[in-house]
Amino acid sequence: MAPETGVAHVSPGTFVWHELLVRDAAQARAFYGALFGWRFRSHGRYDVVLLDGREIAGIAAVPTAKGSMAAARWVLSLAVADLARAMAHTRTHGGQVHEGPMKMGDRGNGALVRDLHDAQLVLLESVPNESVDTAMPLNGWLWDEQWSDDPHDSLDFYRGLAGFSDIEQRDGYWILKSYGMWRAGIREVFNKGLERRWVPVIRVADPTDTARQAETLGGRVLIGVGEAPETNHAALIAGVGALAGCANDGTGRVSGHVSYTYYHGFHDPHPCWGCGGDTVIVVPPADKPGKPKPPGIRPPKPPLPKPPGGIGRPRPRDGRRL
């Protein structure tokens, strides 16, 4: 787990930390450092990720058995009002508690859990403090979404876990809200072989350039910018490793809180939130060589009005439907 980072006093329902578990931490540092300009401060087997001097994430080297194909993954930390209650909810609603409760320095008390669909996350007990809900600069976190083959069960689980309310923004996509703010999304996926997980999104200035650079660094582009039928401003990139998304807010400036679902590009009218915009999903180079699995995203039907900067029917370069 992470060293002390001083992020305990935040609103319940906020994702407060992102932690990459990876076999080859040096490779991860090289990829993310080159792609996003991140810097790193070492704490033994743990690296704190710095963006403009601000601690935004961690990278933990996780040893695996020789010959293991274990993939890297991002594990998100979710603030909850009552850790004991959240742990009990996890157990009684189909999830598992792996570790905890445990003291996590200035981050407060926490527990490592899996939800009812085996998506990993850390629960952190927190105190409401909405003043910390500030925008992240370029190359920082913009959004988080979960891929689920049973989104209604996922919605019920997370409503009870962290007090979320939800909006069905578009067919197959739901937005989780707390304290009046958009916090994360749940996407319905149809590939039963795809691991259920939380996927973070990173704000970038130019998705096209990010996609190109990710390929140069060893990532793989499944859908290039301009290749999706309903937009010229999105790409889908993947590799065998830890998925992470990138998006441009469409304004050229640092915006407020994220106000879009990152495939669909919808705008929310709340004046303190930023604009929707362009999207790319990136994955670091594989710990082991192999072919990535694309997310099993079903195009919405019936067709809805075209949102600004949204993706409609993405198809990979080999012509297959996701």
UniProtKB/TrEMBL annotation:
Compositional bias ranges of the Pro residues kind: 292-308
Xref: Pfam families: Glyoxalase
Domain of life, per lineage: Bacteria
Disordered, as annotated region: 284-322
Record-annotated VOC domain positions: 14-129
PANTHER family listed in its UniProt record: GB|AAF24581.1, GLYOXALASE-RELATED
Protein name: VOC domain-containing protein
